[in-house]
Amino acid sequence: MAAVEATTKAMETLTVSKTKELKGTEKRDSLIANEKKYQQKWQEDGVFQPDAPSTTEVPLNSISAAELRKQQPKFFGTMAYPYMNGTLHAGHSFSVSKIEFTAGFARMQGKRSLFPMGFHCTGMPIKACADKLVNEIKLFGQEFERYKEEEDEDEKAAVPTPSTHREDVTKFTAKKGKAAAKVVKKKYQFQIMKALDIPTQEIHRFADPQYWLEFFPPLCQRDLTNFGARIDWRRSFVTTDANPYYDSFVRWQMNRLKELKKIKFGKRYTIYSPKDGQPCMDHDRSEGEAVGPQEYTALRLKVKEWAPEAAEAIKGKVPEGADVFFVPATLRPETMYGQTCCFVGPKITYGVFKVSEKEFFVVTDRAARNMAYQGIFPENGVYEKVAELVGSACVGTLINAPLSVHKEGVRILPMESVLPTKGTGVVTCVPSDSPDDYATVVDLAKKAEYYGIKKEWAELEIIPLISTPSYGDLTAPFLVKKLKISSPKDKKQLEEAKELAYKEGYYQGTMVYGEFKGDKVEFAKPKVRQQLIDAGEGFAYSEPEGMVVSRSGDICCVALMDQWYLDYGEESWKQVALKHVDNADGKGLNTYTTETKNGFEGVLNWLNQWACARTYGLGSKLPWDPQFLVESLSDSTIYMAYYTIAHYLHKDIFGATPGLAGIKPEQMTDEVWDYVFARRQLGEEVLKESGIAEDSLASMRREFEYWYPLDLRVSGKDLIPNHLTFFLYIHLAMFDPEYWPRAVRANGHLLLNGEKMSKSTGNFMTLDDLTKKYGADASRIALADAGDGVADANFEEDVADNNVLRLFTLREWIEEQVKDEANLRTGPKNDFLDALFENEMNTLVHEAYTHYEETNYKLALKDSLYDFTSARDFYREASAAAGITMHKDLVFKYIELQALLLTVVAPHWSEYIWLEVLKKPSTIQNALWPTVPTPVPALSAAREYVRNTSSNITSAESAQQKKKAKGKDIGYDLTKPKKLTIYVAAKFPAWQEKYIDLTRQTWDSEANKMDEKTLNAELKKMGEMKKAMPFVQALKKRLLAGEKPEVVFERKLAFDEVKILGNMVPGLKKAAGLREVSIVSVGEGEGAEGKGGKVVGGDGVGSDVGELPANAESAVPGVPTFGFVNV
């Protein structure tokens, strides 16, 4: 650990960030000093170390686990444990914040709240990096002193970028994942370590993979502690056999899954690294996360007659009498009846590969490499190339196309868009159903001379194969015409046409030709495929859906190999998972957003067998076949259960020191794990075999039964296609439904200052950077402000920076108020400013609770901080303008509520206010959410009225100033004393009556909602939509806010408008510099034909006003108008 501390100190001297430059740090440093103090205190006091109710308090089995959880509510939440090949970055902190805020709010709801954190070390990345360093130390010396700066060359072969178009539209795909996003473009591993701020003299230590496990977990704990995370560190652990207890847990899990027939053995396609000699799963990749094998039907198109140039090229290299086959790969075997030609890329170089003495295949080298690991060539991993052919030389070759109606054969023709990175580089042509193929053969026929072909080669008859509801029975010609595609170069339209054709054909199409005529395409497809394979005219071929590069730098292929695999996708298992995700009864999985739910359903509908073992890397050995290690996405599916008892097993993350139960790793037999995790009852044989005390076993079982099920799992959305779906599958297989996960909250990636985080551009921050630069609370506020949806969120440094100042000045103001409390007003509260402020605080407390409960943290922050301080500001300023001091009780209520409302997001600041300013006896971390009266709708309406009216008066005066600036006559002099007249109306305009009646008819008082459909239909009929809709929406808003329907429909304001305005007068005079303010009730004076008014408030009460200005008539109840004159 001394080395870790030395390296940590060296790292701390390095530059924190090259993003926003801070100018002054005194306020930040003051806040951070308090944060450090409370973090240490919370740790010393074990504030975040909850335990289940003990078996002494509530004996095991005295009540059911469900009843115990009901009597003593709990919250258990986790996030995907971070991988220990680096420190945490700002993106990690975003996921952390979601579970952290939820755990904090759960505490305030009176729940025991558990948020544990482990350290993931399983898999290839650490071992691969360590092995690279071993080689680099040999090359360059222990401190890489023999390395000379040079131009970093890309070590990968130049490979054309594959199309981003999805070949198989029935599959769900995820966007670029974490593995790809975290790539640092460095040639050597020691350079990557330098980019992680590891000092050069320390890097050699990382050549030992175990050192990574010692070095990074303490830094992870340090950074999360500095962030103020409410984590129970007693329950932490490292994965792999470095911790014998966790190793035992993983081996138990694999044994049970095998017994349940969820783990099977057999040949299956898997992404494979020939260099590493093993499957390359998601976490083993530097590129291509979530890319899986794509299975095709490969066809054997036998050469009948070679084009002259091709015949010359293979002469003497292919034995006389041997059969040569062009081998296209198709996803649509059901369309092979309509083949009219076969395409090659004219500039692509193809290999002629030996299958046997009498058989040879023409494909790209890339395809041959894939086939070599799929049992297609004689020797595994060997693909013997006897000749090479340029595509252009093959044009004109006559071949036999299996199943095609053109029995005499079809020709090889050129297609410029054929890619060597997709399929075999040979493409069979079905112009009836492929828009690309149709556009190409039309172009070839038009320009036959240009392409050097005979026109008739491209004009073979196109026959109908599939009938579709939308596009008839010649889908491709229909879509090419509809989308105005004029050439094969119309890439965008052709991509669209391809997707439309495939989806419509597969899901809606019916075969109209061939042996399976009349069958739906989705049923005919596998039948035709099998027919081709059985006849020896086709075979199964698979390749990666996209580029996959292993962490060792190997471009991966697909291998068909004997291996242990988890049988994901097995029908009965899949249906249970789909039902849980559907959550129709509300007892399944809460996914929070439709996008997350759809993502799960999409993955569940295509995901199948997953290799669960490998031979290289770090991990636990497969119990029944120890030559294999359990792969990293298979040992991390139900570790949340391990958290519940980890502190009973060990005191340190490596399991070197036994925990509360004093148990040795070997005592944790499979039967003990079964008992602890409620899979069996305790028997004498378990007690005898394990030697574990019965009370220790009971305590561990209690911990599991109480904390499970997992209430919330938080993770990036890019883990839906693998980890999160596996997590669901294995929980459903291993545990009773009572313990199945309750919620998954997927979040997007985190942008920094509106741009993608990137070390190369300098727009990058670690969690350590964040807390050093802005402190924990300001960073947490900026993360809450960043967003809550599945879309990518945005951490704005300006938000963090501004909140450093906000927290500091708010703390200062609070301290001043408490210090000068003797100067605050006491006695009865008034019914205007005091009443409005208290009611607004109550409103915001209720609104914040709802938003916290719904995990909408951006909105909760708005209520808890921004709007709460705005309410304080208005009260303070309005009180000063009115010439009165603030009420002591309300100021202290504000301070206490402000501390409580911010506890979830800014706990350190709240703790300071709670303990140091308010002198409360114990930590705010144990305080409950405040209980306040229900908001009074009339006061809420009055507060809104005051806010709007004040704003409107300011706007009216500003408008007059602008007019004056443009040289217009405004009727008074801005520099001389002014009088403001406020015109109020006692009655609403007559035209609104019918809309009042309509709103009354469509409002359901019992359900507290509007019949929107009827309302909108009637509004359209009445023909005054533009005029009426804002009025109706205002009524609806009042009803939804809780105002009584009789008040709304009887045309009454919820408050006395004249009285409220009268109360506002002193403040208006002071704020706007007014000499006089009069409130005139329109239509009540002695003016001609009722157009006069009467002063009912302010200056000159009781006097009549004659002819009123034109804007006075625009006043309606609740919306006064204004006039300015000199006095």
UniProtKB/TrEMBL annotation:
Q: Which GO terms describe its biological process?
A: leucyl-tRNA aminoacylation; regulation of TORC1 signaling
Record keyword Lyase present: no
Q: Where is the Methionyl/Leucyl tRNA synthetase domain?
A: 712-800
| Protein keywords | Aminoacyl-tRNA synthetase, ATP-binding, Ligase, Nucleotide-binding, Protein biosynthesis, Transferase
Task: Supply the source organism's classification.
Answer: Eukaryota, Fungi, Dikarya, Ascomycota, Pezizomycotina
Name of protein:
leucine--tRNA ligase
Q: Which domain of life is it from?
A: Eukaryota
* Family matches, as NCBIfam families: leuS_arch, PRK12300.1
Can you tell me which family this protein belongs to? Answer: Belongs to the class-I aminoacyl-tRNA synthetase family.
- A GO term from the CC aspect: cytoplasm
- The enzyme class is ligase
What SUPFAM superfamilies does the record tag this protein with? Answer: Anticodon-binding domain of a subclass of class I aminoacyl-tRNA synthetases (SSF47323), Nucleotidylyl transferase (SSF52374), ValRS/IleRS/LeuRS editing domain (SSF50677)
User: Where does the record place the Leucine--tRNA ligase RagD-binding domain?
Assistant: 984-1039
Which InterPro entries does this UniProt record tie to the protein?
aa-tRNA-synth_Ia, Leu-tRNA-synth_Ia_arc/euk, M/V/L/I-tRNA-synth_anticd-bd, Methionyl/Leucyl_tRNA_Synth, RBD_LARS1, Rossmann-like_a/b/a_fold, tRNAsynth_Ia_anticodon-bd, Val/Leu/Ile-tRNA-synth_edit
Residues spanning the membrane? none
Q: Which GO terms describe its molecular function?
A: aminoacyl-tRNA deacylase activity; ATP binding; leucine-tRNA ligase activity; sequence-specific mRNA binding; transferase activity
